[in-house]
Amino acid sequence: MHYTFDLWMRRTHPDLRWCRYADDGLVHCRSEQEAQALKAELQARLAECGLEMHPTKTKIVYCKDGRRRGKYPNVKFDFLGYCFRPRLVQNSRDNTLFCGFTPAVSVSAMKAMRTTIRELGLRHRTELSMADIARQINPLLRGWIAYYGRYAPSALEPILRSDTSNLGDAEVQTLCRKDDPGGSLARTNGREQADLFVRWRLGRTGVFA
Questions:
Q1: How far apart are CA 66 and CA 118, in angstroms?
Q2: What is the DSSP letter of 167?
Q3: In the predicted model, what is the mean pLDDT of the chain?
Q4: CB neighbours of residue 190 within 10 Å
Q5: pLDDT for 174-206, tens place per residue?
Q6: How many CB atoms lie within 10 A of CB 196?
Q7: Based on C-alpha coordinates, what's the Rg of the chain?
Q8: Residue 133, C-beta contacts closer than 8 angstroms, at least 6 positions apart
Q9: Cα angle: 31, vertex 36, 40; to 5 degrees
Q10: Which of 164, 43, 149 is nearest to 103 (CA)?
């Protein structure tokens, strides 16, 4: 792809901004006509190199926001686990809201995260202590927070607050009783060990850290 796409773009379209990761790429055009022309050129270029565009992922998207108010069928796209689309954004200077074209974790990425946690089968691993569970799940959550929490971190809330990443209260109390038969942890619902799980720490501080 470096030869097929990168060098070709630099040579034939030095005025256009673009980015690529593996076989996924984006090109920013200034008009729909320019985008259509580039799509045709790129299709021919890939064919010359024995490659072809993905039939469903390849599309022209209108980056609609508060200033771009045209009507087009496609106004969002996924790239590297993020979904870029129009959404309300808060102005950092005066806290007013405006419509921006910004990224947040995509639906498909959220689904993949839920599947990953579910496949750990932690709810059925009754032999594990809370510390054992924390050691398995915290590295996953930290990685997701570090990557997807960079933009629109609140979009991760369904993962961090859901039953798939946060043990239910009854299960926490059961684990607490197993780890501490005296019941001191169970009476506090385990919150005295607030640093044990990434999700608990976030619930306490209210921030991603």
A1: 39
A2: -
A3: 82
A4: 21
A5: 555 455 555 444 444 444 455 666 765 655 444
A6: 17
A7: 23
A8: 122, 125, 167, 175
A9: 145
A10: 149
Are 193 and 138 a contacting pair, CB within 8 Å?
no
Residue reference for tokens 């508060």: 66
Helix or strand holding residue 18 (H, E): strand 17-21
Q: How far apart are CA 137 and CA 13, in angstroms?
A: 45
Tokens at 183, concatenated: 């019941």
Paired tokens of 172:
């926490």
What's this model's pTM, rounded to 2 decimal places?
A: 0.78
Length of the chain: 209
Q: Which residues pair with 19 in a beta bridge?
A: 26
Cα distances (angstroms) measured from residue 169 to each of 38, 184, 207:
55, 15, 22
Contact, 152 vs 102, CB < 8 A?
yes
